[in-house]
Structure formats: structure tokens, C-alpha cells
Write a structure and sequence with these properties.
alpha/beta, four-stranded mixed sheet
Length: 249
């Protein structure tokens, strides 16, 4: 083997190692960036102030919209209905809308944590309802106290969150989601028959192949990682064969 050929082989080996390292570093950076950016924008239940602080800042606690997606009309309508319900029944309904929660955390778990933070004891929870919406995640949840459960079964409460609210939320119709959820809840808490979930919402729940935000993000990341792995394999090989051909007499 000539000195020139040895030099080429040595260069090929070093270049292969460098390209593999670069591709693996890019994969690791992509995974880190994906996880870190997701957590930066995600809220924890503990990040939301207590009701006394919210009252000081906004002069009301019926609608907490950290997502900036609810219209002034929706906020005022929900607040007015909540105040009337509280005056009539003693039950307090609050709507919380945020942008996103941690990937992998169920919306119900987040809502439970917030419910516990705001109302630590069973007595404080008794007459409370929390309607929760994570807009960028397209996720919904509901929490109810013991007195509320006497007029609102867990099954119907789940239907309000998972059908009445979730169907429009999946289509980014967030105002529709909270307004229709509140209207159905209001009817039941006033002692009227349950109007039920919209037919389209029921059909969507039973048949939908709708991909959640988490599934979409995970799928996109997987595609990029697969492409990088392929490049990490093919580029060194292609470079090696090209250099080999260049070294042939």
C-alpha cells in the first residue's frame, strides 16, 4: 500500500468518525431542545396565583385566561353566568385557560392540583367547579366538589369536559368550548335537564383519529431523528467511497 493510499484511508477513517460524531451531537441537541422548549412554555399548577392574588390583580376570579385566547365577550359572559349561579345556588364555577402544560401530564391531574391549591380542604371544595382548558395542547378537564356532585354526576361532568368542550377545542374554537361547557353546566346546576353533548362531539369522541399536540410533536421529532440517523450512516460511507475512488490510479 503506497503512502498516498495510507494517507487517504487514514483521512477517510477520521472523516467518518467526525461525521458520525456530528450527526449524533445533532440528534442529542434536537432532543434536548425539544424537551427544554416544551418545559419552558409549560405551566405548573403552582405557577398560577391563589384566588386572593388574582382578585387583587383582575378584580374577579371567575375567568382566568393565561392563554390570551378568550374574547372579552366570552370572559364577561362567563363571569356574569358564574356570579348569577353563585347567587342562586351557592355553587361557584371558575374557568381557567392556559396555553400548555407539561407533556405527558394529564389535564385532569393538572386541574386536580390547581383545585387542591385553591381549595385545600373538603369543605372549601364542596361548592366549587373548575373548568380547565389548555389551548395549545387541545386538552380539557373538570373538577367538582362534594356538594356539586349531588346535582352533577361524575359521568356528566366528564362528558362536559371530554365532549362538549373538547370537540371545539380540538378545532381551536376555544371561545365556543368554554361557552358551551358553561351553558351545559349552568342548565344542570339550575336544576334543568341535561341538554347533553352536541351530537358531533359524541361522534368525534367515538370515531376520531385526531392527533393530539403531543402526538404531532413526537411524530415530527421522530422523523427528524430518523433522517439524522440515516445521514449519519450514509454520509460517511459515501464520503469514504468517493475518497477511495479519488485515490485510485
Amino acid at each position: 500500500m503506497t503512502a498516498n493510499r495510507k494517507f487517504i484511508d487514514y483521512g477517510c477513517h477520521k472523516l467518518q468518525s467526525f461525521l458520525r460524531f456530528t450527526a449524533l451531537f445533532a440528534i442529542a441537541f434536537l432532543a434536548y431542545f425539544h424537551l427544554s422548549t416544551a418545559s419552558v412554555w409549560a405551566l405548573q399548577a403552582s405557577d398560577i396565583p391563589d384566588l386572593a392574588e388574582i382578585k387583587t390583580l383582575t378584580d374577579q376570579t371567575w375567568v382566568i385566561d393565561d392563554s390570551d385566547t378568550l374574547s372579552p365577550l366570552t370572559k364577561s359572559t362567563i363571569a356574569a353566568k358564574s356570579q348569577k349561579l353563585a347567587d342562586l345556588t351557592g355553587i361557584e364555577v371558575r374557568v381557567v385557560a392556559i396555553k400548555r402544560i407539561d407533556l405527558g401530564q394529564p389535564a385532569a391531574e393538572f386541574a386536580t392540583e390547581l383545585f387542591d391549591n385553591w381549595f385545600p380542604s373538603a369543605e372549601e371544595k364542596a361548592n366549587q367547579v373548575l373548568l380547565f382548558l389548555a389551548t395549545e395542547d387541545h386538552r380539557t378537564a373538570i373538577q367538582t366538589g362534594s356538594k356539586v356532585k349531588e346535582v352533577l354526576s361524575d359521568e356528566i361532568a366528564s362528558s362536559i369536559a371530554d365532549e362538549t368542550m373538547l370537540y371545539p377545542a380540538r378545532k381551536a374554537n376555544y371561545n365556543q368550548a368554554v361557552n358551551e361547557g358553561m351553558s351545559r353546566l349552568e342548565a344542570i346546576l339550575k336544576g334543568n335537564p341535561d341538554p347533553g353533548a352536541p351530537l358531533l362531539a359524541v361522534e368525534e369522541t367515538e370515531t376520531s383519529n385526531y392527533a393530539t399536540r403531543e402526538e404531532t410533536e413526537a411524530s415530527s421529532s421522530n422523523v427528524v431523528v430518523i433522517i439524522l440517523l440515516i445521514l449519519a450512516t450514509l454520509l460517511p460511507m459515501a464520503t469514504y467511497y468517493w475518497l477511495q475512488m479519488q485515490g485510485q490510479p
